[in-house]
TrEMBL record:
Protein's UniProt keywords contain Lipid biosynthesis: no
One record GO biological process: phenylpropanoid biosynthetic process
Origin organism lineage: Eukaryota, Viridiplantae, Streptophyta, Embryophyta, Tracheophyta
Keyword presence, Secreted: yes
Designated name of the protein: Dirigent protein
Species of origin: Prunus avium (Cherry)
Family: Belongs to the plant dirigent protein family.
Subcellular localization, as worded in the UniProt entry: Secreted, Extracellular space, Apoplast
Length: 193
């Protein structure tokens, strides 16, 4: 039997229409790469933590307020200081000199939260009240402090830093025994109002 030429050409036409109009280009199943992140604001500060050790009460900016049963509040406990809670009110400076004029205060706490390695959890604010900056930036996150650099979250802000969010890269710039350490804080804000 002779094939139905009309039906064949109709099918062919519908195939062509389908191929050219219905789906312009089939999308490959590849996740689109997110756009690169660029901070809207970039700031660098240092802050200085001097832990009370029983002798430096005039100089100390931090105190051990919690200790595990095997320790005390004058000296950080054994087992990687696990269980110690330290509260601080530290000067913030623009350079790495403890004696530079402070531009604000770093206020909050850290908890040592692992027995087999030095690591902490940080929750604190940078509080500014100068002509240069007014307001606060709030930080929170895990601080694996044996790493050269580590990132913590910037979860909000007030004043000049209203509703901000971002990431802060911490680096231990110096430490002296278990009494003094200095952190370099590289602040990258990705939400600026
Ligand atoms: C305060 O403590 C720091 C860190 O231990 C030390 O470098 C500095 O000399 C001390 N200042 C005074 C006045 O004791
Ligand atoms: C705290 O613990 C340390 C280390 O175990 C010890 O040398 C020191 O005497 C203790 N201090 C107090 C006030 O108990
Ligand atoms: C901020 O500084 C101003 C002027 O120096 C002062 O009047 C104000 O009380 C300060 N605010 C806080 C919260 O310290
Ligand atoms: C810390 O350093 C270790 C080893 O270099 C690495 O595996 C880990 O991802 C780092 N962690 C953070 C949070 O940077």
């Amino acid at each position: 039997m002779e094939p139905n030429k009309g039906l064949v050409s109709a099918l062919f036409l519908s195939f062509l229409l389908h191929a050219t109009m219905a789906s312009p280009t089939p999308k490959p199943h590849i996740k689109p790469r997110p756009p690169p992140h660029h901070p809207c604001r970039h700031l660098t500060f240092y802050f200085h933590d001097i832990i009370f050790n029983g002798k430096n009460s005039k100089n100390a900016t931090a105190a051990i307020v919690g200790s595990p049963p095997w320790g005390n509040r004058t000296i950080l406990a054994g087992q990687s200081h696990f269980g110690n809670l330290v509260v601080f009110d530290d000067p913030i400076t623009l350079d790495n000199n403890l004696h530079s004029a402070p531009v604000g205060r770093a206020q909050g706490f850290y908890i040592y939260d692992r027995k087999d390695i030095f690591t902490a959890w940080l929750g604190f604010s940078f509080v500014f009240n100068s002509t240069q900056h007014r307001g606060s930036i709030n930080f929170a996150g895990a601080d694996p402090l044996m790493n050269k650099t580590r990132d913590i979250s910037i979860i909000g802000g007030t004043g000049d830093f209203f509703m901000t969010r971002g990431v802060a890269t911490l680096e231990t710039d110096a430490f002296e025994g278990e009494v003094y350490f200095r952190l370099r804080v590289d602040i990258k804000l990705y939400e600026c109002w």
